[in-house]
Amino acid sequence: MRFIKDLYLSNRFFTLLVSCGVLFVVSFFLPLLYGSAKAIFAVFIVLTLIDYLSVFLLKEGFFARREMAEKLSNGSENEIYLYLENRYTFGTYVKVIDEIPHQFQKRDVLFKETLKSGESKTLRYWLRPVKRGEYEFGAINIFISTVIGLTRRRFRFDQGKTVPVYPSFIQMRKYELMAISNRLPELGIKRIRRIGHSSEFEQIKTYVAGDDTRTINWKATARKGSLMVNNYQDEKSQQVYCIIDKGRVMQMPFEGMSLLDYSINASLVLANSAMIKGDKAGIITFSNKISSILKADKKPVHLQHILELLYNQRTQFKESDYDKLFANIRVNINQRSLLVLFTNFESLAAMRRQLPFLLQLAKHHLVLTVFFENTEMDELLNSRPANTEEIYLKTIAEKFVYDKKLIVKELNQHGVHTLLTPPAKLTVNTLNRYLEFKARGLI
């Protein structure tokens, strides 16, 4: 059955078969061509048999495997490798079809290669998932043909595998590596000048060129007989909580990803950055009820706990309850902390409904409210309306944009820090605000 099940006839085969049929029909009217038609048909049959035997006589004439990470990173380009090895004694033409998960809705993962006898080759392509969860990869289908090209043999390598898609750990590692190599400005992270000394005293040391003269310790200088300066270190072990709203307002999609997934990716990067800075990072998720709470910590294993918690977040598409959020924070967070609230206010009325709870939180903690610009309306805002309907739509879009600015202004007037950002720049802008708060000594 293998010789039939894995046999595929090429377009060239059918083209030649139809040509032979046409030649026989013509020979009916021109009998002199009948002998030539039979000879050509016989050659066609012989070539088909030779081609068929060439690709089917060797049982394991080809090998392929898929190589990839144990988990994929949401919202990032993930590399997938296909290793091909030709074990035939002749060169082959290869078609590769990889069965990728249905979530990508791609049917064009097709590669065409030519491999010499004994040659191996590695193909590479990228997949960008936009939702967390489990993705099912299927088999690798290889179609082999010879230079004759009348028949193809299919090799099917069953590499079915379920791969989890986690929050964007690739993005997190990129920011971490950039921080280590002092290249964060390349990603848009600003260098913020430290104002005053909002730091903890560490030690007294000898003055060297470049030290701030304002830190000179004159008493120690008099005792030592040489210039001595106070050395400070950043205040550490401050608590940073990422609070993620999972209500229906966070399901709006931008470039394939929901605002919830953008917030989860940014929370992972912010938590990792805070822990690198010596602060403690925690996570709270809520919608109509408190979904999960992860106490702030800075142990190395804590980052894995954050990753696992964020991976399992889902929404019930319900109205978020800020009253329960406030009550829960008052019970569980006793130390003054930075609360980064990822939510989305589409109207001034929606913000004012939650404003009393935000003000109560701001009395006890440093609150940064992060919400999103609707970048999908940029094209509409920059267009020139051609009729009354387009004028109406553009006016409504301008009203939405104006409301967002009013929300920022009103929150700032009440002492609640705000960040209005495009979804694509969420991580960079959030990190900048965190570093700004550290530099100003607000936390």
Automatic annotation (TrEMBL):
<feature type="transmembrane region" description="Helical">
    <location>
        <begin position="12"/>
        <end position="33"/>
    </location>
</feature>
<dbReference type="InterPro" id="IPR002881">
    <property type="entry name" value="DUF58"/>
</dbReference>
<keyword id="KW-0812">Transmembrane</keyword>
<dbReference type="Pfam" id="PF01882">
    <property type="entry name" value="DUF58"/>
</dbReference>
<keyword id="KW-1133">Transmembrane helix</keyword>
<feature type="transmembrane region" description="Helical">
    <location>
        <begin position="39"/>
        <end position="58"/>
    </location>
</feature>
<keyword id="KW-0472">Membrane</keyword>
<feature type="domain" description="DUF58">
    <location>
        <begin position="204"/>
        <end position="370"/>
    </location>
</feature>
<protein>
    <submittedName>
        <fullName>DUF58 domain-containing protein</fullName>
    </submittedName>
</protein>
